[in-house]
Specification:
This is Acyl-CoA dehydrogenase. The protein is an alpha+beta fold. The chain has helices at about 35-45, 50-60, 65-75, 95-105, 120-135, 140-155, 160-170, 295-330, 345-375, 380-410, 415, 420-430, 430-435, 440-450, 455-465, 470-485, 495-510, 515-525, 545-550, and strands at about 10, 15, 80, 90-95, 190, 205-210, 215-220, 225, 235-240, 245-250, 260-265, 275-290, 335, 340. The protein folds into two domains: about 35-295, Butyryl-CoA Dehydrogenase, subunit A, domain 2 (Beta Barrel); about 300-550, Butyryl-CoA Dehydrogenase, subunit A, domain 3, CATH 1.20.140.
Length: about 550
């Protein structure tokens, strides 16, 4: 009897729709099952968070959370400028899956809650949580990141911080526009860039006019990129009589009226499609001064340091998620008489990707540790954080697109279809190099740190010294880097920062990773025994040890 299901027809003892040699669904899986991640969390002082991290990892890899991630991107946010009567409302509507993701992230402390946690390692725990929860989707990481980053900037105006910080550090997610002080928790956004300036924020033309009330201004202007317009408050740059200054702009004023925040459109972006990025116009918009007049960049720079770390974190999370997907496929797919994972060339590709992923994760957690200790007053870590965050932001985010493309290729045609989720990761990857300062901006920031803050270079080389003598290739790379500093210029800035990043990653792996990982990284990234694409590790690299460490659970 012929089956009607799928119109299958018996032919030669089989059916046309038998599915063979395909990987089963990856979900459910544990996104925290990452040896390099767990080792780094303990090393950087957040071992106390491991139980929660493992619980979050199981949730991130659940069928439900992965479905939320897919739906939030398939059903993009919609802008509603007016209500049915013609009144301006300037609201953005999201699919319920977005709210599920946001609610979980806020409850798990992935926004600003570490600022209210006195435990050493609290900021490391948040970063580790982002590395794990980042296995879902990246878009909702934007408002959580900005909310986290807003707190240190807001503290430059203590009377405002007293009102808003307890709400920003809350673990309650309460969407919808209402009077901020009447909500259980708040989200913060930021508006710096304008169409004529981009990263050159000092060319901003938005103006701030003082009112009769001390510290209160009205804004007029147009922002080119303001992400997460559904947030409750925003840190905005505008020109005052005293120069470029920072302001707090609430969407709803204390008397319950809507502040003027006219959303002209949502950006139609390559990726990050679950997240709304907007162009708002200010016209008589009420704003409160944060920090002194004329010190807007200085006030908001701490916010940028925090969001740059989150760009590194999310790039590392995308790498890890893509590697897990590629490894899962290779373990279940056969070609030329063997499982892909056992084919020597595929194993080389997976091992090379594993090296890159471990280097990114290890550096991310080291940067988070530096941030945690700098916040607690460690001068050495403050100097290290200043330069190393810009170095890491430049390099790790640059590696993301090439990495996700190679991981996608491991799945072949299966990875090129939307159902696999890999195209979403691939589209997301370039964003993290662009936001919070593109590659050139971060490279120039490194040069600025070297010229204006000599202690940053000393802190970086002190970090290298911790691994001195452990690997000759690493020692040679440190010597080359020291020589290169004397001829640093804008023309060669990218090359300089690239060498800084690779040397820093190499020094961390030599100190903290197994010999197979450290040796292969130093041989390729520092010793030059490498090709121009992933999968070109040299003969003699311990591929089995590298792959087994990165993809636990057997072959």
């Amino acid at each position: 009897m012929v089956s009607t299901l799928g119109e299958q027809r018996a032919y030669g003892g089989s059916t046309t729709h038998d599915v063979t040699n395909q990987a089963p669904p990856l979900t459910p899986y544990d996104a925290s099952e990452d040896t390099a991640l767990l080792e780094g969390v303990r090393r950087e002082g957040a071992g106390w968070a491991e139980e929660d991290l493992r619980r979050l990892g199981r949730q991130a890899g659940s069928v439900q959370a992965q479905e939320w991630a897919d739906l939030a991107n398939r059903h993009e946010p919609e802008l509603r400028t007016h209500d049915r009567y013609g009144n301006r409302v300037d609201e953005v509507e999201f699919h319920p899956s977005w709210h599920h993701l946001m609610r979980t992230a806020i409850a798990e402390g992935l926004a600003a809650s570490p600022w209210a946690d006195d435990r050493a390692g609290a900021h490391v725990a948040r970063t580790a949580g982002g590395l794990v929860w980042g296995h879902t989707e990246a878009g909702h990481g934007c408002p959580t990141s900005m909310t986290y980053a807003a707190v240190p900037a807001l503290r430059r105006q203590p009377e405002l911080a007293k009102v808003y910080e307890p709400l920003l550090t809350s673990r309650e997610y309460e969407p919808g526009l209402r009077i901020p002080t009447e909500k259980r928790g708040l989200l913060a956004g930021m508006g710096m860039t304008e169409k004529q300036g981009g990263s050159d924020v000092r060319t901003n033309t938005t103006t701030a006019t003082p009112t009769s009330e001390a510290g209160v201004y009205t804004l007029r202007g147009h922002k080119w990129f303001t992400s997460a317009p559904m947030c409750d408050v925003f840190l905005v740059l505008a020109q005052t009589p005293g120069g470029l200054s920072c302001f707090l702009v609430p969407r709803v004023l204390p008397d319950g009226t809507r502040n003027t925040f006219r959303i002209q459109r949502l950006k139609d972006k390559l990726g990050n499609r679950s997240n709304a990025s907007s162009e708002p116009e200010f016209d008589g918009t009420v704003a409160w001064l944060v920090g002194p007049q004329g010190q807007g960049v200085k006030t908001i720079i701490e916010m940028v340091n925090c969001t740059r770390l989150d760009c590194v974190m999310m790039s590392a999370a995308l790498m890890r998620k893509s590697l897990v997907e590629a490894g899962h496929h290779a373990r279940h797919r056969s070609a030329f008489g063997a499982r892909l994972v056992h084919q020597p060339l595929m194993r080389n590709v997976l091992a090379d990707l594993a090296l890159e992923s471990e280097a990114a994760t290890t550096l991310t957690l080291r940067l988070a540790g530096a941030a945690d200790r700098a916040i607690r007053g460690d001068a050495q870590e403050t100097a290290f954080r200043r330069i190393a965050t810009a170095v890491g932001k430049y390099w790790v985010t640059k590696r993301g697109p090439a990495f996700t493309a190679e991981a996608l290729e491991c799945l072949g045609g299966n990875g090129y279809v939307e159902d696999s989720g890999m195209p979403r990761h691939y589209r997301e990857a370039p964003l993290l190099s662009i936001w919070e300062g593109s590659g050139n901006v971060n490279a120039l920031d490194v040069l600025r740190a070297l010229s204006r803050e000599p202690d940053t270079a000393e802190a970086l080389f002190s970090e290298f010294a911790r691994a001195q003598g452990a690997d000759a290739r690493l020692d040679a790379a440190v010597a080359r880097l020291r020589n290169r500093l004397s001829g640093a210029s804008q023309t060669t800035a990218r090359r300089l920062v690239e060498e800084m990043a690779l040397t820093l990653q190499g020094s961390l792996l030599v100190r903290h990773s197994p010999p197979a990982v450290a040796d292969a990284f130093c041989a390729t990234r520092l010793g030059g025994d490498w090709g121009y694409a992933f999968g070109t590790l040299p003969e003699g690299a311990d591929l089995d040890a590298i792959v087994d460490r990165a993809l636990p659970g057997g072959n």
